[in-house]
């Protein structure tokens, strides 16, 4: 099963790892181990190197997030302009006004006609 993580989740996990390593690094027991004559790594790497590496990686991820968000905003603006929504010259049509209620209904029409017909000549 492949795990799917967002960029912000990856950044948060790495920040958590960095904080955990700093916590371990601050303990007296770890300092005693690292300062022991029996503590040795192939490249003279210590826990602080891992903390610093994670700091750099998290910083690079933050820069990536800023750049990709700017690009997404730019691309969204380009799409809006391409379909005509980015131009300030175009405005949405106003909402139609409701038609006024008629003063005379069809039921009153015969009465109104009778009242307004010219007199009949015999």
Structural features, described:
The protein is mainly α. The chain has a domain at 7-89. The protein contains four helices and no strands.
Which stretches are low in confidence, meaning pLDDT under 50 for 5 or more residues running?
none
| Percent of residues in helices | 55-70%
Order of helices and strands: HHHH
User: Beta fraction of the residues?
Assistant: under 5%
Q: Give a count of the beta strands, DSSP E runs of length 2 or more.
A: 0
- Total helix count? 4
Q: Give the N-terminus to C-terminus distance in angstroms.
A: 100 Å
Shape: rod-shaped
Multimerization status: single chain
**Radius of gyration, whole Å:** 38 Å
How are the SSEs ordered, and which strands pair?
Blueprint: H1 7-25, H2 28-34, H3 47-82, H4 106-116
Helix pairs in contact: 1-3
Short synopsis of the structure:
This protein is mainly α. The protein has four helices and no strands.
Which descriptors apply to this entry?
122 residues; mainly alpha; 4 helices; 60% helix; 0% strand; rod-shaped
């Amino acid at each position: 099963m492949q795990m799917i993580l967002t960029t912000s989740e990856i950044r948060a996990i790495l920040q958590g790892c960095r904080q955990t390593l700093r916590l371990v690094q601050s303990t007296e027991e770890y300092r005693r181990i690292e300062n022991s004559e029996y503590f040795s790594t192939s490249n003279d790497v210590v826990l602080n190197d891992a903390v610093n590496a994670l700091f750099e990686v998290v910083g690079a991820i933050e820069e990536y997030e800023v750049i990709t968000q700017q690009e997404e905003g730019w691309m969204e603006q380009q799409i809006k302009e391409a379909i005509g929504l980015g131009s300030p010259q175009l405005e949405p049509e106003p909402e139609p006004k409701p038609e006024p209620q008629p003063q005379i209904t069809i039921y009153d029409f015969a009465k109104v006609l009778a009242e307004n017909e010219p007199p009949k000549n015999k």
